[in-house]
Design a protein that fits this description.
Number of domains: 2
Pfam families: BPD_transp_1 (PF00528)
Structural class: mainly alpha
Number of strands: 0
Oligomer: single chain
Radius of gyration: 23 Å
CATH class of the largest domain: Mainly Alpha
Family: Belongs to the binding-protein-dependent transport system permease family.
Function: Part of the ABC transporter complex MalEFGK involved in maltose/maltodextrin import. Probably responsible for the translocation of the substrate across the membrane.
GO biological process, one term: transmembrane transport
CATH topology of the largest domain: MetI-like fold
Protein name: Maltose/maltodextrin transport system permease protein MalG
CATH architecture of the largest domain: Orthogonal Bundle
Length: 273
């Protein structure tokens, strides 16, 4: 009994430690500016206000950055999932020389620090005339999201019995038809998990967006909010907290509905196919 109580207290302590910064971010976003630096600080605001949200939406380019992030993350997710699905099918179902070595080489590229690829990618994108565009970020994000997505879907693909596809081929289905009608429905949990992982990664990425995009029209939320609200002389804390809350809402909503797929995906990613 004492052990159970101690474990529950420990677990709730961890939860509170993780949740408190999120709670403080939310509370700060609805505090008037003059209450932010009051000593001692108050947990809850004495006066609740939503003026920071209104100012963020009406007086800044937040919605433009938000739309850029939606386009960027959605496009990257579609590209990565499409390529990873076909690639995983190739690595699992076809037999050719160097197949296993190729799979481990793909995973090895994911282990490389992101900063290693920035300069080559930047030079390549400049030569292609794609610098300072959302397309350049889609290409960049695909380079580091695709290896893990491919390995993740490979693990899911390896768990689908090959006999199901063989039976469909014997019954007269084409390879493409068997893939569409048999493999994809079985692979759907892995596809959703991979898509969620890729979307979150693209939504939160900062380093590539900072280096590859200098145009305000193509900035995503991560660098757009930083450039808009943080300067060498001043930080708009209230607006920054309001922006952080609004940036978190799409991820919270998506994660709330698909968290079981994400957990299942992380577990499958640790299994060698």
């Amino acid at each position: 009994m004492l052990r159970k109580i101690a474990f529950n207290l420990f677990a709730w302590s961890i939860v509170l430690m993780v949740a408190f910064p999120l709670f403080w971010m939310l509370v700060t976003s609805v505090k008037p500016q003059f209450e932010l630096f009051r000593r001692p600080p108050t947990i809850l605001p004495e006066t609740w206000t939503f003026e920071h949200y209104w100012k963020l939406l009406s007086d800044t380019n937040f919605l433009g950055y938000f739309w850029n992030s939606v386009i960027l993350s959605t496009t990257t997710t579609i590209v990565v999932v499409a390529i990873a699905t076909v690639g995983a099918y190739s690595l699992v179902r076809f037999r050719y020389k160097g197949r296993e070595s190729l799979a481990f080489l793909v995973l090895f590229t994911y282990l490389l620090p992101s900063v290693v690829l920035i300069l080559p990618l930047y030079l390549m994108l400049v030569q292609l005339g794609l610098s300072n565009t959302i397309t350049s970020l889609v290409i960049a994000y695909t380079t580091f999201a695709l290896p893990y997505a491919l390995w993740l879907l490979r693990s899911f693909m390896a768990g689908i019995p090959e006999d199901l596809e063989s039976a469909a081929l014997v019954d007269g289905a084409s390879r493409l038809g068997a893939f569409w009608d048999i493999i994809l429905p079985q692979l759907l949990p892995g596809i959703i998990s991979t898509a969620l992982f890729t979307f979150i990664l693209s939504w939160n990425e900062y380093l590539y967006a900072l280096v590859l995009v200098n145009s305000d029209d193509a900035r995503p939320l991560t660098t757009g909010v930083m450039n808009m609200l943080i300067s060498s002389f001043n930080i708009e804390w209230s607006l920054l907290m309001a922006a952080s809350v609004m940036m978190s809402v799409p991820l919270i909503i998506v994660f709330a509905f698909l968290q079981s797929y994400l957990t299942r995906g992380f577990g499958a990613g640790g299994v060698k196919g």
